[in-house]
Amino acid sequence: MSRPRYLFVSSQWSARCWVASLAITTGLIVLPAAHAQVQTVTAPVWSAVDPLGVDVSTGQFRQSTSEVVVGDPGSGGLGFGRHWIGSGWRDSLAGTIASAGAIYTVSVGASSEAFSLSGGIYTSLQAMGSTLSFNAGTSKFTYTARDGTVIVFNKAIATAGSVTNFWSSNEGAIETSTRPNGEVLTFTYTSASIGGLTAYRPQSVSINTGFRIHFTYANNAPTNTTDLLGAYLMRTKTTGINTTVFACSATATTCSDSTGANWPYVTYGTEAGGIQTVTDRLSQTTRFVVSSNQLTQVRLPTSGTIARTTITYTSGRVSNVSSNLGGWFNTDYAYNDVSGVRTTTATPVAEGGPTIAKTSLASGWVNEFWGDSSGIRKGVLTRDGYGRITRATRSNGDYTDLTYDGR
Questions:
Q1: Neighbours of 336 (CB within 10 A)
Q2: Is residue 119 within 8 Å of residue 110, measured between CB atoms?
Q3: Residue 253 near residue 216, CB atoms below 8 Å
Q4: Is the dihedral of CA 304, 308, 311, 312 positive or negative?
Q5: Is the pTM for the entire model greater than 0.85?
Q6: Where residue 25 falls among pLDDT bands split at 50, 70, 90?
């Protein structure tokens, strides 16, 4: 079969290009025991994900799911899914702020942007036109994306000291998101306290059009700290509801999914062998096999015990992906770090030659893509000091220049 046609995408530039279909992202933030507990993973600020889900800049594997949709997302509805990012899941609706020294990272869903703090001023390290501020009186951060979306994060419910939040971070958890079109998402948390410890969990996410995503957990009344930090934060179900049809409080611990409207839902569970399950209301189960915090297989409802995608790792990085989703693909990956540059080579096992990506280890920026092993079909990305692409040069010498305004 022929190899897929490739598409290069970045948050600054999109064009049909010369080498690989990579999603280049940065800084743009537009039961039985269940497997979903405290989420600690966040997306890196910079990434370059190929068609098989491999971030060629890091060797991480990425997988995104859509699990519950109610209404029409983008037109007043809500959608919920999860992103596998290297070593664990992150909710598509999750929003957090984490700090390390003077660097503050805002993460919403599968995107992140970093800011530096100096003299009380937060400055974007990617110069994407977004802003971040902190109000000490309310103990809340306000992040304004370049498209005008305003997101408020509450520092009081962040994971720190005696407090643990399901969406874990040490500076803030998302509270509201106001979009330029007037849509407002409100994130409601419930909490419990035992023995000087407090746990917060997202109970629902509501939009002002009336739709709501509701979460169910394994334990609503913990009696000891083990339950508090375990079953109380163990999600077992996600349900989509139209509250104009069925009234269920944003803080309710349970909401019926059988009110005549057949509300969409998924339940979460586990099976022997490190298998995590996601089952919808039609009893269709998708299975994810996880070993040592690495996603190794994806099994769809129609495939039973047969993996539709298999991921192999060597020294913590993806070394092979075999998938028969949308065709049959079997690709080996190799990494070579020399003089501050990581060379990632993706080689199809059955046919075709290798494609190569070259990443600066210091910045995490992918600066070259090769369509062959000799570099004859080489594309080069020139960047400014923020990592923004200022010139994209194709193998034939043609190039596209990009300039940026203050936004």
A1: 11
A2: no
A3: yes
A4: positive
A5: yes
A6: low
